[in-house]
Specification:
By secondary structure, the protein is mainly beta. It folds into three domains: 188 residues, Alpha-Beta Barrel (TIM Barrel); 76 residues, Immunoglobulins (Immunoglobulin-like, Sandwich); 117 residues, Sandwich (Immunoglobulin-like), CATH 2.60.40.10. It contains five helices and 28 strands. Strands 19-21-24-27-28 form a five-stranded antiparallel sheet, with no helix packed on it. The radius of gyration is 42 Å and the shape is rod-shaped. The two termini are 70 Å apart. The C terminus is likely disordered.
Length: 399
């Protein structure tokens, strides 16, 4: 188990040197043991070796088995200085923290200190410390020069405002009563202003489906709440599968993803469900006779459905009408007629056509089960007319 020391304090040498040089409102002296003593209004601190010597501190931590220490600044803070000097000293402290983290092989991390007597400078320094320096958060004092950060509602209530940077922010709150008894709470706050990813991977909504039980596969942010229609799930990984059940017809399917911060992305897909088989009617029935080898087969199916007559394929018109002109052989001919819609629902039938008389001098061109030659597929209402037919296009044998 990794052991982390969270409550400790450190004065970077550059901070102590700034106080020694006289560039401070804090009076600097040295005690009989050579330790710096920092005098500030109402109190003083003695910076013993462990508070200022990072090499010595590293040796002590290794000796007692502490794996990591979270460095924090302590009293008097930089806010006892003028606002400009407070901002300058806070930058120096945070730069020193960042150097220690970078050079000590994971032994230390640190919370930034802020010039709390200047709110604008505090926000700027927090953004710099968490962004440029990579510090995971900041430590706030319970008061600034004797003035509480904020108190409202009663003697036991308080509130405060903090500027957060994008990502995780560690806030450490400490309260000390008049007797000197301390208490501390550490809060991890995550600021997330970015919108989560939401990408539909499957199915392909550009086509129709022959059933309404679908599984929608999405790519989103782990931890996000993903909704498809009336179903909501938590994304346990980047790929999310959401089952939905839709009724026949056209549906506008609403899809959304909301991350932990409430950032939400929405989109919609048009879904066409068609579980019904198309109708298929061959005019004249499935058993017919003709005296001519040239025979026109007429039928009706679902509007715009696809049609296959023997080996020839085409598409019915907007009324569902189709017609094929065939060349038959004398005797019995069996022709298979198949219709299927955009969802893949398929229906078939066979038509037996008997040629009762020789087809004259015209060469035989069509025979079941193998179709040969050319078939003319006639679409629209003209297919029903027995007069000169209107030919829309010519279909040739597949393959």
């Amino acid at each position: 188990m990794k052991i982390i020391d969270f409550h400790n304090h450190y004065y970077p040498p550059r901070y102590l040197e700034a106080l020694r040089s006289g560039d401070s409102d804090v009076r600097f002296t040295v005690d009989d043991e050579g330790n710096p003593v920092l005098h500030y209004p109402g109190d003083y601190n003695v910076a013993v070796r462990g508070h200022r010597d990072i090499d010595y501190r590293s040796e002590v931590l290794a000796g007692v088995g502490v794996d990591m220490q979270v460095l924090t600044f302590t009293s008097p803070g930089t806010h006892v200085e003028t606002p400009a000097r407070a901002a300058r000293l806070a930058r120096g402290v945070n730069d020193a923290f960042a150097e220690i983290i970078a050079t000590r092989g994971g032994r230390f991390t640190a919370l930034a200190t802020l010039p709390l007597n200047d709110p604008v400078a505090s926000v700027a320094e927090l953004e710099r410390a968490s962004g440029e320096l990579g510090l995971p958060g900041a430590m706030l004092f319970s008061n600034v020069n004797g003035v509480a950060l904020s108190v409202s509602g009663g003697p036991n209530d308080f509130s405060l405002s903090a500027a957060l940077s994008e990502g995780d922010n560690m806030l450490s709150l400490m309260a000390t009563d008049l007797a000197g008894n301390p208490n501390r709470i550490d809060l991890l706050l995550c600021l997330d202003t970015g919108f989560p990813l939401l990408e539909v991977i499957a199915p392909d909504f550009s086509r129709a489906f022959d059933h309404g039980n679908l599984t929608v596969v999405l790519r989103s942010e782990p931890g996000a709440l993903v909704s498809v229609g009336n179903t909501t799930v938590t994304a346990l990984s980047a790929i999310v599968e959401v089952p939905v059940e839709l009724e026949d017809g056209r549906t506008v399917l609403l899809i959304s993803a909301a991350d932990r911060a409430g950032n939400t992305v929405r989109k919609s897909e048009i879904v066409n469900i068609d579980s019904r088989f198309p109708t298929l009617e061959v005019r004249g029935g499935t058993s017919q006779a003709t005296a001519n080898a040239t025979f026109r087969l007429n039928g009706q199916t679902e509007p715009n459905a696809f049609v296959r007559v023997g080996d020839f394929e085409g598409q019915a018109d907007s009324l569902g009408v189709f017609a094929v002109t065939l060349r038959l052989r004398p005797g019995a001919n069996t022709v298979r007629v198949t219709s299927w819609d955009a969802a893949g629902n398929t229906v078939s039938t066979t038509v037996d056509i008997a040629v009762l008389e020789p087809p004259g001098t015209a060469p035989a061109g069509f025979a079941a089960p193998e179709l040969a030659g050319v078939a003319l597929l006639i679409m629209g209402a003209a297919a029903a007319a027995l007069a000169v037919p209107t030919v829309r296009f010519i279909l040739r044998r597949r393959g």
